[in-house]
Each structure stands twice: as C-alpha cells, then as structure tokens.
Amino acid sequence: GHVEVEVPTGISNDPTESNLLNASQIVRPGGLDEGVEKIPKVKKPRKKLSTRWTTKPSCVSDDSGQEFCVYTNSNFANGRGISFFTTEEISESVKDLAAFSEEGVHDEVNVFSDPPWEVRNIPGRGNGLFATRKLERGDLIIADTPLGVYNSDAFFADYGLGYQYLRKTYDQLPEESRVILMSTAAHSPGDPIMERINTNAFAGEFEGQNHFFLYPETALMNHDCRPNSMYYHNTSSLIHSAHASRTINPGEEITITYINLLQSGTERQEILKMMWGFDCTCELCSGSELSKARSDMNIEKIVQYHKDLADWTSSSPASPQLAEHLLELYNKEHLYAALGTGHMFASLAFNAVGNVDMAFQHAEKALEAGMVSSGSVIDDVEEMKTLMKGPKVHWSFMARARMG
Ligand SMILES: C[S@@+](CC[C@H](N)C(=O)[O-])C[C@H]1O[C@@H](n2cnc3c(N)ncnc32)[C@H](O)[C@@H]1O
C-alpha cells in the first residue's frame, strides 16, 4: 500500500534552510555534541538501556517500493518512550547512537520538576513559557527527547492510510507520553497527530535523511523575530536543548525563532502566517514603519557581510573591520544568538591578515558563545579550537594577506 500523509512544515533545524545563520559554508562540520556538555550531572536511579523495539514493527511501502515502518521503544529515556516512522536501515543504525547505547545519557533531561519557567496562556497565541527566575545568557531553559521521529519521505501527497501509521507511532507510546503529546497545540483542524507534527515538529537531517522531531515540551515556546533563547538539537543523544541567548527577566516570555531571521519583515510574516497560521506581533514586527525599514536594511547588510566573509577568493572585500561591523549589526539588531558566528568570522578575518592576538581573542569569544548558538554554529567549534591551538598553522593564517 501507500503511505499517504501530507508533508508537514516543521520548525527548521536545517542550517542550509532556515537556521538563523549559515556560517558553516566555509568550515568543516565538527563536534555535534557540544550542545549538551555543560548540563550538570545529577545522580539518579536509571533503568537499563534497551535497543529492542517493544512493539513489532509495522510497515508500509510507497510507490517506489521503499518501506517505512513504525518502531517503538517504550523504555527509551527512562520510560518516556519514542516512536520512529522511518526506513529499516535507519532503525538499525539508530541503535548505535548515544541515545541508545550510552547509559545514563537521558538522566538529566525530560525533568520538569523545578523549571525556571511556567506555562501561561495568552489570548491570541495559546500557551507559552514565561520565566519565573532571572536567566543569564547560556543558562539551560529546557531539554527534552522526542516522542516521535518521522522520516519526511514517509509523507506523501495524499492522506488516509498514512495517518493510520502515524496513529501507531502514538498508540504504542506509554500512556503518560500520549497525554503529553496530545496536550501540544494544533493550529489547524485535521488528523490529530499530523496536525501536531505540523505545528510543533522540528525539521532536520537525521542519519542522512530529513526527519521531523516532535519535542513536546520545547513545543511550548512561541516564536519571536528577536528571540531570547536558542535551541540546539543533538542527533546522537536525541536531546534538544534551549539556552538563554541574553538575560531574561522574571515574567518575560521565553521565545525561539521558527524561521530564518535573516529575511525582511514582510518575508518573515508571510512564512509564519502560511506555515503556523499566525500574524506575528512580536516587538520588531509591530514597530514603526521606519524602525522596520531600518531593520530590513541591517539584515540585508548582515547577509551581504556573511557572503563577503565566507568568500576566500582574491576579490572578496572581507577584512577585520568588516567582521567588527558585522558584530555591531548583530547587537544593534538584537540578534544575540548570532554573536558566536560573528566572532568566528572575526577570528578568521584577523588571522587572515596575520593578527594572531585578535584572532585568538575572537576564537575564545566564539567558543564562549557556542552554547547559545544553533547547530550550524556549534559545528564551527572544532574550527575555533584548532585555530586556538596554532593560529599560524591554521589554514586561514595570512590567507588574505597573501592574495595581495
Ligand atoms: C510550537 S506551538 C507554540 C506553543 C503554542 N502556543 C501552544 O499553545 O502550545 C506553535 C503555535 O503557537 C502559536 N504561536 C507561536 N508563536 C506565536 C506568536 N508569536 N504569535 C501568535 N501565535 C503564536 C501559533 O498558533 C503556532 O502555530
């Protein structure tokens, strides 16, 4: 038969598509695990890891004969459970991930006994997270594992049968987790599981293919075009964590971005309306025409500077001054989550003209910022570490000075 489910949209975790930034064009991907390193260790009794599916997989094929099956492990993450709707090959490789092979990997996540926030319902935007304590840049806000991971190729242009398989991903979870999943919002009527994926799931690459990840607690965060937190999704531990990207005061709503922020206000509003059904009334979107026009201009400049700084040909206008200007623009635009990228660019730009001291200083700041940056930025961590070990043997050293 066919899997016949419409394609969900998904809050993107894909750096090439709609992360805040895409700095990794010029750098090689590095350690994807940095995002969770600093969570404090708490000893807790833990259940044994199990890589065995707790329900017999049920499968369905598409037109080309590709099979997609529902795989559930109800013991995952200390009994929270997880369901995959993906290929057999991926279901096999998943077993080697830290999420399934490292004992205690989920002991500090999915714990919401004393969070620094509370859930409040705001007319016009549903539930949201509001800070109950003061948070500083880098502080952990929320970390959870997905209840569902769905291969995007398992979604086709029609409905019906496919929904039955989505339903299985849900039915096979432990009862408590089913309640949590159903308590997430759906912004359109339709199939209850499909619509929850549509409204809440994060899109990202997983084992070489695009998938949607449903993190039900993280899903409580509303969108802001100048968010005060930044998330990072670890595809090995399957932990999604959000950290403050600036100081957040008690009572303030904690927000993330659903989209690439380096787009004009009009573009942002169109996408948010189309994909999540709301008119963005964040501070930036409801500002004066003049302030919005200024912001659009700054964003255009930022996008151009990114291109220039990532361009290592002799015609590139990149320079340390240009990188410093980029950092100023991030601050002006309150794009605090992007500062790590700015420092990374600055470090390379200084090293490229042989200013090792400044290259080192910016590399340090880039690493400091790593925790509050998006996945693509964290990939740059290795790059900065290598540069700090030996700026003069790093590929960027004098790279622009030599071009003359
Ligand atoms: C991932 S959920 C966020 C949590 C949701 N508000 C709830 O009640 O569970 C996404 C949905 O929240 C609403 N939403 C998110 N950000 C919003 C915003 N800035 N303004 C209005 N509605 C928003 C939209 O309905 C959107 O489809």
From TrEMBL:
UniProt lineage: Eukaryota, Fungi, Dikarya, Ascomycota, Pezizomycotina
InterPro entries: SET_dom, SET_dom_sf, SET_domain_protein, TPR-like_helical_dom_sf
GO biological process: one example: methylation
PANTHER family reported for this sequence: SET DOMAIN-CONTAINING PROTEIN (PTHR47332:SF6), SET DOMAIN-CONTAINING PROTEIN 5 (PTHR47332)
Name the UniProt record assigns to this protein: N-lysine methyltransferase SMYD2
Keywords assigned: Methyltransferase, Signal, Transferase
GO molecular function, one term: methyltransferase activity
Top-level taxon in the UniProt lineage: Eukaryota
SET domain segment(s): 115-259
